[in-house]
Structure formats: C-alpha cells, structure tokens
Amino acid sequence: MDTASTAFLEALTEAGVSYVFANFGSDHPALIEAVAEARAHGRPIPAIVTCPNEMVAMSAAQGYAQVSGKAQAVLVHVECGTQSLAGAVHNAAKARVPMLVFAGASPFTQNGELPGSRNEFIQWLQDVHDQRGIVRGYMKYDNEIRTGANIKQVVHRALQISASQPEGPVYLTGAREVMEERLAHNAVTDMTRWMPLAAASLPDHATATILDRLERAKRPLIVTSYAGRNKDVVPELVAFAETLGIGVLESVPSAMNFPADHPLYQGNQWNDPRQNEALAEADCILVIDSDVPWIPTVSRPDPAAAIFHIDVDPLKEQMPLWHIDAQLSIRADAGMALKQLNDALESRPLDQRAVQERTAHYAAKSRARLAALEAREMKSAGIITPEYLVACVRRHVDAETIVLNEGITNYGVVCDHIRMTRPGSIFASGGGSLGWNGGAAIGTKLAAPDKTIVALTGDGSYLFSQPSSVHWIARKYKTPFLQIVFNNHGWKAPRFSALAVHPDGYASRANDLDLSFDPPPDYSAIAAAAGGAHARKVERPEEVEEAVAAAFDVVRKEGRAAVLDVWVN
Fold this sequence. Notes:
The chain has 569 residues and is an alpha/beta fold. The protein is globular, with a radius of gyration of 25 Å. The protein has a 6-stranded parallel sheet with strand order 3-2-4-5-7-6, with helices on both faces. It is built from 22 helices and 20 strands.
C-alpha cells in the first residue's frame, strides 16, 4: 500500500517539480522510505538535492524558478529548519518567486499509538505552538497536512496559489504520523484542473487613456524594475518604447528588463544620493512592475508629471507604507498589458516628427552616458576599481552566460558595466536579505545546464551565502559556476547608510565603525576546501584580466567551480 509520503512525491511529480532541495531530519522517515521505495521500483520522482544549509536550499529553488519560471520544492526539518531558511524566505516573498516549502512537524502521539509516534527526546523540544506562524507573514498560503486522504489536493492547491499572480512561496507542514499513513487508493490527478489563474489584462478605457497621455508628452518615460522576470515581456517593451520614442529607466532592477545598449535606455538607479535627470524631466511616466520606482527623499518626478502604474501587485499589500501619486493604477500582467498597448498602436496615427524628436533626445543622453561609463573602465595604477573588474568580466560574457548580481554597494556598477542585452541573462535576488547568490547559482545551473553562470557578490554577501555548503553542493551535483567576490574588507553599505543620515557626525570622523573584516578571511580558499573549487586571490590590477580568463576556462572547460577573491579599492 502507498503512504501519504508516496502520494506527496507523486503530487510534486504531477505538478512538474523537477527538484526537491532537501535538508532531512528526524521528522522525515516516511519521506526517506518513500524516496527509496520509488527508486527501487523505477517510479519517477523529483531529483533530491541534499543541502547542508536550508538558506542555500531555498535560494537554489529561487534561482531555478527565476530562470525557468517553474516552482520547485524545498524540504526542511520542523521549526528549526524553518527558521534556518533565514533571509531566503524574505527574498522569495519579495521577489514573488513560486516554490513549495515543506517542513515536517513533531509527532502528535507519544506512546506508540500510531506509526511515527515519538521515539527521540528532541521531538518534545521541537513541538512548538505555531510552527507555520514563523513564516506566515511571507507566504502566500500555509496549511497543515492532516490526512493522507487529501494530500494531493492540498499540494496542488498550494502550488496553484504559488503560481498564480502575484506569485510567491507557499508552506506546508505534516507530522510523522500523517506522512506514514497508509492509503488504499492513490489516483492520478488531472492537472488541467489545477492550473494557475489566468493573468489579468488592461481594461479598454485604460489602454486609450495611457496612450493618449503618452502620445501628448514631450518627455515620456517608462520606469520598471522586474518586467523582464518574464523574458517574453522584453520584446514587447522594446517595441512599445520604440514606437512612441519613450525613454526607459530601470529602478533597482532584478532582471534584464531592457537592452543596455539600446539608444532609448536611460540607465538604472539604486541608492544614488542625487536626482535622476531622466526622472526629473519626464512629463508623463508609465511605471511597469516596480516596487520602488524612485526614492522621493533624493530623486522624484516633477509634481506636474502624469503617472500611470501597471503592476502585477499595484497595491503592494505586503508593504505597510507605500504610495506613488499615480492618476491611474491597474493590476495587470506586464506582458499582456504591453501587447494590448502595442496592438492598439498599430491602428493609431502617430505624430512621427514628435516620435523622432523624443527618440533623438534620449539617444543623445544614452550616448553620453555610455561614454562616461567607458571612461570609468580604464585600468588604474595600483588599485582595482569595480568598474574595471566588471568590464574585464564582460569581455568573457557570451550569449550562453547568465549573471547573478549581489554586488550590494556595487549593484549599480554591475548593471552599468556588465551591460546585458538578452532577456533572462541577469538576475538579482529581488529582496533585501543577503546571501542569495551562492544557492541561486546552483539552482540557475540546474535550470540552465548549458549556460555559464557568473555570480558577482560583495564580501559580506559571500559570507552570508554559506559558501562551504554552496561549494560542497556544486561539486556533488556538478553545477559549476564562477563566483567573483568584491573584497572591500568589510560592510560598506552600513557605512553609506550612516553617513547619508549623519554626514558631519561622529561616524564621519571615526576611524573604526565596527564594520571592517580586517584581516579578511581567505574567501576563495573556503570554496576550495569545501568543494574543490579553483581558488585565487587577486590584489593587483595587472592580474585581473588573466585571472578572470583563467577562471572562465576552469568553469567552461573543466566543469569546476571557480572563486576569485578580488581586492577592490
């Protein structure tokens, strides 16, 4: 007879889950047995990826989903493993990434009344009042599996909710006794009944209103952060911007939203403490899929500018404080909305002289911006600048490369100088908890095994990423990637934050702000010890070109991970 755990694995398989990123514990005997039984009988189940650290597991599931669009599963140990998911829960929620997290629960019997009853001391200590409450604020859905009789229904409902816009993680728990439950019948599920909800489109009146105002604008501007999470959206966005001559500005981009070499591209903004020129001069702004289109204390639109907002999550319901002065805000899928707008433009007469003038204006701005960026890429004497480092990396990036950006204070430098042009070629975590890049590189490589994966990370985020677990997994499961550490000997971001608020305070004159990593760890050696990675420390500018080239060769030709510890100024 099948067990509830057998049905659980079959439900994941029916739903198209390819991988379970697992950290097994004493709550999983039934699942471990079900995996072994399925393998013994040649029955298909998702591949199990053993993850010594839970945050790495969830980051890997996020990386896989960001590239493929398909939800994967994460398996952790009771409430302890749930808490060890750490900031990966935040990242998946804020980036709206679909995945299913399953955690066992302490047995609910203690005298052998049912199979799976308590037999280890830890099961009393791990019995807590509200295990699901630990992550409830971050999950789209949470539930307890109470019986094997409807376990497939619960799993498919969870994954349906996870994959419906706005997407996000879901969380299930199941005690040992439930997961051991014997099932007399385990029917195959008709998955056509569990499809995600259809994406929303623009109402007809909104299409006309937005086009009328954009067409009349002298300096129309599009602001986006993550429209390119669906790579099919990018061609629609490019076509729309070209047809009307609209500039495109990325704000805190977490995907490749618009080609960096396009003449309408006006760059990207992060925490820059200055007014963005394109934003200031815009008289009509279309915000498409952005959580933070601007930071009003330092950079904001003209108060007279007309603002329209199209977003998969326009109310930002999980953000207690949020508002932009949009005269029209619409919940809609970016791809569907842009196609509607493009279709409407086909039959609409346009003032081509105005379109050409806008295009020429933005193209001139784009050329000036690129010239300034190229000037910063020159090799400096005695120091390695982040701009020069990223430019060296760019020379080895091809059409089969995916870049992961967790550069923190160098986020903008990476975007500016890696200059990606292909949909689906660059991602950031989309959240604010550091340490995503290592696990994400593993998941990305599993989702795109023929691609070269490059993770660019600050030294602080490298330590947060649990590199010993990351590189052990990378070797075991043959997911090599290149990881480049911007080693500036400490936490630079908290320093910037303090000085932004207290530019002339005591911190501005202090020699030590307790943010230094001096003497720094040997970052690359950690990866070499844990996973046999190619390891190299790079301290002088004349070493950079050769070191980067050699590291790419190791990853591409030897199929081995490589870590460069680069000491930037």
